Amino acid sequence: MPQHSTCFILSSLLSLSLTTIAVAEDWVIDTQQQWTAAANYQTHLEFKDGTAIPTDSKATFVSEVERFKQKHKAKSLVVQQSPLWQNWEPVANLGPVNLQDAPVFLPIGPDNYWVFGRYGGAKKKQGFQPEPAQLDGFDVKLQTTPWKHQFDAPGGLNKGLGGYHAWQSRDMVNWVHHGPVTEAFSRWVTSAEYKDGKVYIYYDYPNDQDPHVYIDEDLTDGKPGKDMGLAVKDPSHGSDAGFIRDKQGRFHVILEDWSPINASKRSWDSPLAAHAVSEDGVTDWKFLAPPVDNRTKDTGKIAEYKHPHWLQHPDWNTNIGKYHVHEPEQEAYGDWAPICVGSQYYLFGDYDPAGGGHMSVAWFTSPSIDGPFAWCDKIGEGHPDPDIGFAEGRFYLFTQQKTDFTSPGPWVEQVQARVGVDTDNDGKLDTWTDWQEVKETYDYTPGLSKHVKKTPAQLDLTSLPAGYGFGFELKLKDTTANKSKPMIDKVTLTFE
Q1: Strand partners, 122
Q2: Tens of pLDDT along 304-329?
Q3: Which residue of 43, 98, 232, 240 has the lowest C-beta tally within 10 Å?
Q4: Largest Cα–Cα separation, the chain
């Protein structure tokens, strides 16, 4: 056979083999219509607002067969749950027993967790004498304290200044006290962030007014860092601000805006939040659209209220605030604490419900820091002033109440999945993967203390043969004692 004929045949066979398995678009099930169209059979499962929601402790879903004219090779099945994040469990107070006032939690990275608060409240044992102590992960001289799992470092022996103190932990069990980080005038600490080895400690001055900031390069020295003074010139009354850096490293602040409410009668909270962004966290803040806005109707009337702390500021000559009267009665939120899980942002804060009822922790969510943020749920009882962070593989929700909360993350157990393929184009699935449990996992994001890296819940399908049709099955089981359940928001079957 001539050489050119052999080359032609080999080329034709190669071309045929390359075109046998075609490239397919991902099969995405996300909307209400897509869920309804994809369903062949389900038990104890309803589709509502584009989410598959179990109606019992166990539920199943069997898809239709998605058919193709040419063979395709599957890559993965990715399962996404609802971002509601109801997977919380109550626990006794987190952190040291003498942590007082509104806690501020800052997990800087693995084995490096910080909490800030006022020092006091726990009575010392009479006649107690401290002794030298050693603790894994700490190479400074430590002393025992009257309280279990608490130690004083050299900085912690410094005299308090009337403001916030710092405690550090390597395991979220043992806490080392490092002493003051703010002063009496700067005792209204609301939030902290981390950047390039420096901790930004934000405080209101006066209370519920413009955020100011310390930049602290050594939290262990028992004294405040550099006071940078005014950071955010907030045009509204109210603050209790939460700070977070975005994935580009910019600083964002979420503040209370009291312009539509008599905050003095609503736990100093508001239906309206403000949002600003800065490159360095100190200057040139640009205000953006409100991330939370649940105002009712503005009546056009202006009224006043008094604040008990504004006249403590030497340059503040009034304790009167004005607001626009709104009707009917409004929900009120505040003391904001942001966190980002994967690409999903959350705002935790106070919740003072309209119509009375006890206060609690509420949270909102958005796929963008720019919002708008949607209501998720509430938990607990009392005025919380919460903060949230990720440490030791779990999420910790600190409050100033007697009960705090922990969560393994937004993912709710248990989801099992399997995928089948039609290899002979008869419309029936003849080869299946084994049943496997899928779940999200979480980890630290280096350099971004309030961002938690998320690995999606997915099933590897590369071992499946190519085929003309694909389908999948899900088994959902609620293994939690809380109100959360595995609600499936989106399923994506990807192809090579």
Answers
A1: none
A2: 999 999 998 888 899 999 999 999 99
A3: 43
A4: 104
DSSP run (H or E) holding 382: none
Q: Are 171 and 149 in contact (CB under 8 A)?
A: no
The string of DSSP codes covering 152-219 is E-GGGGSPP-BS-EEEEESSSSSEEEEEESSBSTT--EEEEEEETTEEEEEEESSTTS-EEEEEES-T
Q: How many CB atoms lie within 10 A of CB 36?
A: 10
Give the Cα-Cα-Cα angle 275, 278, 281 (nearest 5 degrees): 105
Secondary structure of residue 252 in the 3-state scheme = strand
Reported pTM: 0.94
Buried b (16+ CB within 10 A) or exposed e, 125-153: eeeeeeeeeebeebeeebbebbbeebbbb
Residue closest to 38 by CA, chosen among 61, 63, 59, 62:
63
Check pLDDT > 90 for residue 121: no
Tokens 């602290």 found at: 216
Tell me: the pLDDT tens digits for 258-278? 999 999 999 999 999 999 999
Q: How many contiguous H segments (helices) and E segments (strands) does the chain have?
A: 2, 40
Q: DSSP assignment, residue 270?
A: B
5 pLDDT band, cuts 50/70/90, is very low
Give the bridge partners for 71, in sequence order.
21
Residue 59 exposed, middle or buried by CB count within 10 Å (0-12, 13-18, 19+): buried
Run of H or E residues at 134: none
Token pair of 45 as six digits:
């499962």
- Look at residue 240 and tell me whether its pLDDT is greater than 70: yes
Nearest to residue 172, comparing CAs of 425, 351, 393, 1?
Answer: 393
Nearest residue to 460 (alpha-carbon basis) of 420, 488, 427, 433: 433
3-state helix, strand, coil in the chain (%, to 5): 5, 50, 45
pLDDT in tens, 186-209: 999 999 999 999 999 999 999 999
Query: Is residue 1 predicted with pLDDT exceeding 90?
Result: no
Mean residue pLDDT of the chain comes to 94
Write out the DSSP string of 399-455. Answer: -SSSEEEEES-S--S-EEEEEEEESSSSSS--EEPPPEEE--EEEE-TT-TTEEEEE
> What is d(CA 396, CA 405) in angstroms, rounded to the nearest whole number?
6
Alpha carbons within 13 A on the beta-carbon side of 138: 25
For the four alpha carbons of 417, 419, 420 and 425, in that order, the dihedral sign comes to: positive
